[in-house]
Design goal:
Strand content: 5-15%
Number of strands: 8
Distance between the termini: 24 Å
């Protein structure tokens, strides 16, 4: 790209339409809403943007800055940094291309006026009461506490896995829709994407523009998904309770399906407490401590400790880190290990039992044979295919972001 333009004292720099946040700790958040990309800059740096964007040449801006601060101003590196962050639109007549994906405003017809009531103070009181109600029902009716076997709600495991895969994404969309509507309720937007966290396939709502809203309103967006999950769990528990009390009648298959939903949603809420990943609860904590990279800094601090024993580990210098942020990093480090324990518990108490149950059913069906029990055999074969598809999707999501690097390596070879 540098070959297409050259920054000289006579260059005129034109920026994109940039959002400017309020000053906070001497820094100003600057960025593009259309791609959800933001950087924190010193207040003086934004003055440079204003001067350049007014049509003054690089040389004229340097002269103004030198007169104001009494020292030589070198702003070429700053301009290059802003170009690399895709904030610059033109250098003279050359248009800087935008490679980042443009934000997609999902449900553009829905505004905060339509969904604001769902996240009003009264609504949050209801969410809190229903979440407490879930805990009370689990404590008073331990038979409702989800078990791995609840996942296989249909006699045919393949049917349970196939349909739960479909309905599971509806449940995930329900969670992400809460984030999306909450974002609209507080005056920003987002869009869905598919990714992976470790070996888990996840759907997520990209909230790149959340930095443009006041800090206290971000909690509404971060907690919306778990709030709606709690509502769904409570309603499902209520259905089970009414059925067991003979107030209503639920068919055995429907009853089992409701328990499967509870299993999925409860583990979905537990997922959010994996402090070793960027989950909803992580963003709540990071927002509280006013840290943009709390997870990365906590990981760096752990590596610094390990570097005492392993010389190959490179240490991170925290010398310039503000004391308040350093306290937050130290406080969060134990939570990182809590998140690791939750992740391990998820493997051992959820994923591994589910996998073992599927392997057992598949082996039973295949070893029994088609002629002895054709239904069990077909169930096993379809189950193997569905499980392979699931792991194939995971492999695709893991390898997709690395494919560009592989292509470049192959090209170099």
């Amino acid at each position: 790209m540098a070959e297409e333009y050259q920054i000289t004292d006579r260059s005129v720099i034109k920026f994109h339409d940039l959002f400017k946040g309020e000053e906070e700790d001497g820094l100003v958040l600057v960025g593009r809403r259309d791609i959800g990309s933001y950087v924190s800059l010193p207040v003086e740096a934004y003055d440079v943007i204003d001067l350049l964007d007014s049509g003054k040449t690089v040389g004229e801006v340097k002269t103004i800055l030198e007169a104001k601060y009494g020292e030589e101003a070198e702003i070429e590196d700053f301009i290059e940094d802003m170009i690399s962050n895709e904030m610059v639109h033109y250098v003279d007549d050359y248009e800087i291309p935008t490679t980042s994906e443009l934000q997609k405003d999902v449900f553009s017809g829905i505004t905060g006026r339509h969904v604001g009531w769902l996240f009003s103070p009264y609504a949050w009181v209801v969410y809190g009461v229903l979440a407490a109600g879930c805990l009370i029902l689990f404590a008073s009716h331990p038979q409702y506490i989800p078990q791995p076997a609840d996942f296989f709600w249909h006699p045919w495991y393949s049917v349970a896995v196939g349909l739960t895969f479909f309905f599971g994404w509806i449940l995930v969309a329900f969670h992400e829709l809460a984030h999306l509507f909450a974002a609209k309720a507080v005056g920003t937007e987002g869009y869905f994407s598919l990714s992976n966290r470790l070996i888990f396939v996840v759907a997520q709502t990209n909230l790149g523009n959340i930095w443009t809203i006041p800090r206290e309103k971000r909690y509404i967006v971060y907690l919306a998904g778990m709030a709606w999950d709690s509502v769904m769990v409570f309603l499902c528990l209520l259905l089970l309770l009414l059925s067991d009390s003979s107030v209503i009648h639920l068919d055995q298959l429907v009853y089992a399906f409701v328990k499967a939903i509870i299993f999925i949603k409860v583990w979905g809420i537990i997922w959010q407490f994996r402090f070793n990943m960027q989950t909803d609860v992580y963003y709540v904590v990071a927002n509280y401590f006013r840290c943009r990279n709390l997870l990365g800094d906590a990981q760096a601090r752990i590596k610094n400790t390990l570097s005492t024993f392993v010389s190959r580990i490179e240490k991170t210098d925290f010398t310039g880190t503000p004391p308040s942020e350093m306290r937050a990093i130290k406080w969060y480090t134990p939570l990182y290990f809590v998140g690791t324990a939750v992740t391990l518990a998820t493997y051992l108490l959820r994923n591994l039992p589910l996998l073992l149950l599927q392997i057992r059913r598949a082996l039973d069906g295949i070893l029994t044979g088609y002629h002895a029990n054709h239904a069990l055999f077909i169930d096993a074969i379809v189950l193997v295919i569905l499980t392979s598809f699931n792991f194939g999707l995971l492999g695709f999501l893991v390898l997709r972001p690395r494919w560009q690097g592989v292509k470049q390596w192959l090209k170099a070879r």
